[in-house]
């Protein structure tokens, strides 16, 4: 329910292809195909890939891989930022230099969902935004409200990257609710990084969202045992239908999470605790 095929800095890779290591497109594609075929062999039929603008979304590469793997790869639209929106959006939108212009982010997200992404013919099936330790910065709030508005218009689900330790899932719920979003279609991502049951249960009033217990294998953020124990306790309290499990893994990434390198999907499938 939350895996990435690639997480890259697309602008940097395209302009500085040898930084920090030479990029071999064919080799990376072949490696991803091999790893995803192994996942398919282990019984995985579908992955939900929330790679959006800011994480290096490039659908032609995903199409090339998916042509070689009998796996459903569900792609997203949205924008991933912890602070500001990309510079291209700084001066367009309500209340900005073009004050009569509607929010362009909503228009772009809806187009990805209804018409397809660029000229690939692939339609996004859900929305993605983020709120991290920095909190509800103006840029983060703008993206989150645009995501909420796009969901109201299209009805597709939302997943939100949150920081469980700052309890930013509660902030995301509040903002999305203000935009009229259907919280039963919202995944509060990375909730599994927390063992704070008071916080987790505070996000589970009616209407009930979905908690993303989605970083199994990233033990540096929360141990495997603590993740399992938290899920078990939430099941005991009656919330089994309000959780989704995942790894937040990648076939390849150049990002590091708090000093812990993300492992590949295939590597996480071989994690001793998951056999």
Summarize the topology.
Blueprint: E1 4-7, H1 10-15, H2 25-41, E2 46-49, H3 59-66, E3 72-78, H4 104-114, E4 126-130, H5 138-154, E5 158-161, H6 168-178, E6 186-189, H7 197-202, E7 210-213, H8 224-236, E8 243-245, E9 250-253, E10 256-257, E11 260-261, H9 265-269
Parallel strand pairs: 1-9, 2-3, 3-4, 4-5, 5-6, 6-7, 7-8
Antiparallel strand pairs: 10-11
Helix pairs in contact: 2-3, 4-5, 5-6
Please characterize this protein's 3D structure.
With 275 residues, the chain is α/β, with parallel strands linked by helices. The protein has one domain (4-274): TIM Barrel (Alpha-Beta Barrel). The protein is built from 9 helices and 11 strands. The strands form 3 sheets. Strands 2-3-4-5-6-7-8 form a 7-stranded parallel sheet. A two-stranded parallel sheet has the order 1-9. Helix 2 packs across helix 3 (59-66) and helix 4 (104-114) packs across helix 5 (138-154). The protein is globular, with a radius of gyration of 18 Å. The two termini are 19 Å apart.
Short account of what is shown:
By secondary structure, the protein is an alpha/beta fold.
Spatial shape? globular
Low-confidence stretches: 256-275
In the CATH hierarchy, the third-tier topology is known as: TIM Barrel
The CATH first-level class comes to Alpha Beta
Radius of gyration based on Cα positions: 18 Å
Question: Can you count the helices?
Answer: 9
Please give the share of residues in helix: 25-40%
Largest sheet descriptor: 7 strands, parallel
Termini gap: 19 Å
At CATH's second level, what is the architecture?
A: Alpha-Beta Barrel
Percentage beta strand: 15-25%
* Average pLDDT figure: 90
| Total strands | 11
